[in-house]
Design brief:
Length: 310
């Protein structure tokens, strides 16, 4: 690790410790103060956010999408600031920040079936707070990829595992651990909006546009018969806390065909985004493997959902 990386890791670690003591409302205001600088520097994030919103919400005019993009970037900033709170804040404070839970009966019903639960958790709101609650209330396993700054690994692992979560690598060994947890009737977490490697997905529509989508979830379902529940921790206005949502997944996630199941995964993500579109991480490149299929947000080449990624 270079001197620059060591300094960056030390600074980030120090900031997380300091920010873990702040009120959520303070972090929300701080994100607002940081937003002009972030917008000035984060050219790629602004561009990707703008392009993704144009695909998802063509019915909005330019100014409406611009306002949504600005609010989305502020949520991205505050999510980063809240990491210290979720990982290192007082347990009583994190628990108190969860103001209510919607759809809890759905989760309890799935638990009673003892077939395992797959929590589909998009990059929406604060997924670290969701991990905190899940691992506090049930055996919970999730995949984990170490950060680029390796000196942050222990801090992140400790934060995510402090309430009992079991982290497994993003490898075949990790998939095997997920299968074993599901067969024990436990819960596992899947991030449905990460772009997989060239052998781990199919093309499926996301807001009507072709997006390379992981097939891990349908494979886990077919091997275990687990129930799929979509869940997020939605941020309340002005940093007032969070609402946890547990929602039924689109029925297509249970299909035998990978392309149909992937379509169901994306439809489930779209449904949860509708809770508050500004809280989704729009700067993520969902379409990076399929950009050759469209231009100016218009499809220029017919696409086949079962076709391999070029």
């Amino acid at each position: 690790m270079t001197t620059k990386d060591r300094f960056s890791a030390a600074l980030i670690s120090w900031l997380w410790r300091r920010l873990s003591r702040c009120r959520l409302s303070t972090l929300w205001r701080l994100a607002g103060l940081m937003q002009p600088l972030y917008r000035a520097l984060a050219h790629r994030e602004r561009r990707v956010t703008r392009d993704n919103l144009a695909r998802a919400y063509p019915m909005l005019d330019h100014e409406q999408r611009a306002r949504l993009a600005r609010l989305s970037l502020r949520h991205s900033i505050v999510t980063a600031l809240e990491l210290g709170f979720a990982w290192q804040g007082k347990i009583t404070s994190v628990n108190a920040s969860i103001k209510r839970i919607e759809g809890l009966a759905l989760l309890e019903e799935a638990q009673a079936q003892k077939k395992g639960i797959i929590i589909l958790a998009p990059h929406f709101g604060n997924w670290e707070v969701l991990n905190f609650w899940l691992s506090s209330n049930m055996p919970f396993t999730a995949m984990y990829e170490p950060p680029r700054l390796h000196q942050l690994d222990d801090i992140i692992r400790t934060g995510r595992e402090r309430m009992g979560a079991h982290l497994v690598p993003t490898t075949a060994r990790g998939v095997s651990a997920l299968l074993k947890a599901l067969k024990r009737g436990e819960a596992v977490g899947i991030l449905p909006d990460q772009v997989p490697d060239d052998t781990g997905g199919v093309i499926a529509p996301f807001y009507g546009y072709p997006a390379y989508t992981a097939t891990l979830l349908p494979k886990l379902v077919s091997r275990t018969g687990a129930q799929v529940i979509v869940s997020v921790a939605r941020r309340l206005p002005r940093g007032e806390g969070y609402v946890l949502h547990f929602m039924r997944a689109d029925e297509r996630v249970y299909a035998d065909d990978d392309a149909t199941a992937a379509h169901g995964v994306n439809a489930s993500v779209e449904r949860v985004i509708a809770l508050d579109p500004a809280q989704y991480q729009w700067e993520y490149k969902r379409y990076k493997h399929t950009s050759h299929l469209y231009q100016d947000n218009q499809l220029i080449t017919p696409w086949d959902a079962s076709a391999p990624v070029p």
